[in-house]
Amino acid sequence: MRWRFPVNFTGRSPSQEWIELVHTAEYVQAYCEGTLDSKAQRRIGLPWSPALVNRTCVAVGGTILTAKLALECGLACNTAGGTHHAFPDYGSGFCIFNDIAIASRLLLQQGLVQTILIVDLDVHQGDGTAHIFQDDPRVFTFSMHCEGNFPGTKQKSDLDIALPEGMEDEEYLQTLASYLPDLLSQVRPDLVFYDAGVDPHVGDRLGKLALTDTGLFLREMQVLSTCLSQGVPVACVIGGGYADDLQALVYRHSLIHRAASDVYYLK
């Protein structure tokens, strides 16, 4: 059986082969058909349903489209994505298919880019992404995350910055500023994928850092303005966020889009 995305992407249906640039055929088929064993399903942490299969694939297609729009326009945002805990043959931590990894592999295969920088500021290390690209010099993985948080066993990114629990806005933003400009100069990427997880927020139940709404917005402005000032296109995904107050969580996820609008029209 050859399963296909239930969405249309720029005039064609994205194929299973695109997902298999990162994930094994056995895992893709088992997940899409709902035949994963119970242990593998528990590791993902989400109950299987046809609707979730659809949502998962729409998000991957959205990240691919976002990347291509970023190359065309300089900046684009997906309203989903950032599933960085997904490994080639299994899902983990609410992540099923690794959308940034799939999009990166596809752009490289199509010759649209030569070098990619992944800036992962989700509060959790991007372990799946780090593993996928550990031997690929074309993709530089940068993860700035809370040290004492999931996953318990970290992978090795090209650059990992492990932060202490409770870090607040000023120290966080200063830490980011001490790395990002130099990384852009050293890596010289054709595209930045930015995972703008909002789980570093002080009100996030899985975060353990202490950023405020203002701190998150300043972070988004800092990342986007730094990249665009060096002429590097940015494709943004929303990453993680785990708050009991849904309205507050939606607002935090909106900050990357608000910042992108401000930066894009000021550039």
Explain how this protein is built:
- The chain is an alpha/beta fold and 267 residues long.
- The chain has one domain (16-266): 3-Layer(aba) Sandwich (Arginase, Chain A), CATH 3.40.800.20.
- The chain has 10 helices and 6 strands.
- The chain has helices spanning 16-19, 25-33, 38-44, 50-73, 99-109, 127-132, 169-177, 180-187, 213-229, 246-266, and strands spanning 75-77, 116-120, 139-146, 159-163, 191-195, 234-237.
- Strands 1-6-5-2-3-4 form a 6-stranded parallel beta sheet, sandwiched between helices.
- Strand 5 (191-195), helix 9 (213-229) and strand 6 (234-237) form a beta-alpha-beta unit.
- Helix 9 packs parallel to helix 10.
- The radius of gyration is 17 Å and the shape is globular.
- The N and C termini lie far apart (47 Å).
Q: Averaging pLDDT over every residue, what do you get? A: 94
Q: Could you give me the name of the CATH homologous superfamily?
A: Histone deacetylase domain
Tally of DSSP β-strands = 6
Task: Work out the radius of gyration.
Answer: 17 Å
Tell me what the CATH architecture is.
3-Layer(aba) Sandwich
Class based on secondary structure composition and strand pairing:
alpha/beta
